[in-house]
Amino acid sequence: MATGEIEISVEHLEILNPSKTQLPFPIRQFIKAKESLRMQYRYLDLRFPEMQRNLRIRSKVLMRMREFLINKCNFVDIETPTLFRRTPGGAQEFIVPTRNPGKFYSLVQSPQQFKQLLMVGGIDRYFQIARCYRDEAGRMDRQPEFTQLDIEMSFVDRESIMMLTEDLLVESWLEELGEISTPFEQMRYDDAMELYGTDKPDARLPYKLQNVTDIVKTSIALTTKTGIEYNDNFGAYAVVFPKESKNFSNSTKAQFDDISKREFPQAKLLQVKITESSWKSGLTTLLSNDVVDSIENRLNLHNGDMLFLSVGQKPDVQEVLGKLLILYTNILESKGVTLRAPGFKWLWIVDFPLFSKEDNENGIRTTHHPFTQPHPEDLHLLATDPLKVRGLHYDLVSNGWEIGGGSIRIHNSLLQKQVLEILGIDTCQMSHLLEALDSGAPPHGGIALGLDRYIAMLCNATSIRDVIAFPKSMEGRDAMSGAPIQISDEDKKLYHIRTPAD
Amino acid sequence: MATGEIEISVEHLEILNPSKTQLPFPIRQFIKAKESLRMQYRYLDLRFPEMQRNLRIRSKVLMRMREFLINKCNFVDIETPTLFRRTPGGAQEFIVPTRNPGKFYSLVQSPQQFKQLLMVGGIDRYFQIARCYRDEAGRMDRQPEFTQLDIEMSFVDRESIMMLTEDLLVESWLEELGEISTPFEQMRYDDAMELYGTDKPDARLPYKLQNVTDIVKTSIALTTKTGIEYNDNFGAYAVVFPKESKNFSNSTKAQFDDISKREFPQAKLLQVKITESSWKSGLTTLLSNDVVDSIENRLNLHNGDMLFLSVGQKPDVQEVLGKLLILYTNILESKGVTLRAPGFKWLWIVDFPLFSKEDNENGIRTTHHPFTQPHPEDLHLLATDPLKVRGLHYDLVSNGWEIGGGSIRIHNSLLQKQVLEILGIDTCQMSHLLEALDSGAPPHGGIALGLDRYIAMLCNATSIRDVIAFPKSMEGRDAMSGAPIQISDEDKKLYHIRTPAD
Lengths: 502, 502
Description:
Chain A is of the alpha+beta class. Chain A has 16 helices and 18 strands.
């Protein structure tokens, strides 16, 4: 027909299988059923053109990645086990009881150990599109099982893995999304926090954080009024949305205040609409008049601007403003203001700290995983000041989404042992890896891309559930079959376990 | 060098990572370490050229399969969940406790249900290289997790799936293994049992079973001497190895007698070396002289031939001879006699019985799985004589190895319900599938190929463990890491389970 649709004129009709006349929801309709119903009847939901398109794009892009890695770059696709033993110091792993009383497998959270062992085994270019498992019930847009493109190479440095990854994305890119230009910009972790208040910056944003610590520190008013001390960790940052205060409502203000107090207790937030007059009273409750004037000059504030200012402990200050920067941008864009640049803005985030502070026995945890190579320039700090050590880790970020991450790994067993000990991890649990490193392990490194999220981004889907054929709910439930369910007494006996009701 | 090896003349040497001087076993050696040691240090074992070759062949062949299915045949590669609910009537499935007290996932034994639901969802050509899980501890050459190429199509018949599979194998075949010629021969299940005593015939074998039931039935001597009744299920079969009795030793005789008595109690085995004279006494203990003469004529027995004869219940008779046919062939080949034809002999086995006898409440179990379409010619027998119903199932066999199997599925919910009820399976457990079939499910069918075994065959490996990077032992143990291991009290608390020691 003129519309491009097809009209079929039927001569003979044979019904191969009758269908119920009243399906739970109609397929030819613009307004979709609510998600719980879509999930319960996923096999009907899959008939929507968007779902058909998403799954076909997924298949196509993954195939292009394989073609690039195998046919162009000589990688070997190797399957690694998912039933293994717990990796200490990572995410919560599902356990699987066996017929051997009291003995359990863990479902791997990634092929990390196996890919390193493959390097020791002389497979110098490995990849796998790997199923991974994490028991992180209730975290937004997470699935108990997910898929990552897992890559590892021997005799490489950070730059060559980044280059390979960029080439891989270019080769598997969808033409209809426009050009993807390489090399991607690199940003140090400290700069990402300084400018965007997050390690996943959305580089499409026109506005950034502005550091006003030096100005605020000249004033004693803040200390007098709030008791906040100007220690090494003090920070004062601002975000300005020029001419955009008109969409700032009281409910937005209340929401932002709530987020700040609940999630970032060590930062104090001030939200001020810049007007012709009297707007400074919103700041002088905490800051001296001199300081407020300096801030006005530095930030070049004008009537109609929206100002967010936060003071306190630097990490909380940066992060609350990073969050509000996104949220207020979203609010403005929902009102029709275009702020973000079009297309995809790719970034490599580098020079992450190797360790982060943690409220545990050692006061320290690994920022990514215990196998990341410390930055060679910082090796001397490992024993004396570990929190200052950077790691050879890199994250790939696009439009504010973390698409992947990787690192150069530790290939020396003594260094690996030292790092495990700093983290308070029992080295006996990792003796197989330490022994392997001692057997002539080549220097190696790699990366893993989160394919569910990457494909969701390509498909412009709001949730990864829209690019997974049979996803689970936020609570890990399969709405179609009702899984997880109770097991039989025979199963309990076979696996030597008892449950609360027994 | 002249040998083709490379000699390197070193000008500068930098040691990137030192290795222990004394590795558990040397890599440059023809005599391999014993398997337990190889498994404990798998990362060293992977350095052997055979393992490198096997893993690279695996990667290459799997890629060719994908290229054929996606690029040539427009299949969609779709990942399906592994955490699901138990499928009734299949293999033992691993269970995975959740944070929800008493609720468990099961690890899928195959994507069977999901691929059928995808057909209902309008994905008419699906495939996946899928990880599957079965808890079959201790069965020879099985792994708790394994990989299958899983295919499903809508609007197909048996022949089109066979043809697609043959094309797939031809396209992904290794040139160095010689030609693979299609179409593959088809053999009815009954004929496979009649000629080879197994549903996985090795068609390279020169000798087959020979049916002598008609001769033996003319004699009353057997009944008098053994009490064996000539009921409908009676069978007498022979296998003759012409001129091959010289390698038949007393210990072989004892071994075969033991197998027959232990595994096939309803068959009586006679093993006779044909000589110039007096060999008949080995048969006349049970059979009348007339019958022995007729057998001699029918089988054309001559001095030096080796005769195996079995009488009793047909299934046991056929199976014991099928097993001895292989075992004695292996013994002869180990002595240097060439019996098997060279190359690969492919077979499709068709017309399997839909159900088999079982010692359970219903006296019946499914031969493959409850979703197989009954043969249309036998539908009238479903209610009255289900054991006589054939299924639209097909197995792919090569050189005596089952490489894959599939079927046309039931697409009508009433028929599916009827079959579940015959099997005594609670239909409530399968309500999601029944509902899906009721929503306009197209006729569909598919196949799954066991890739570990297929690749082992291509690599001429004796065990699937030689084509898996990190296999587990027969007991499901990972020798490298010691998995499965005990879990922490925190894990037990988190997953609401107690173990025997608690």
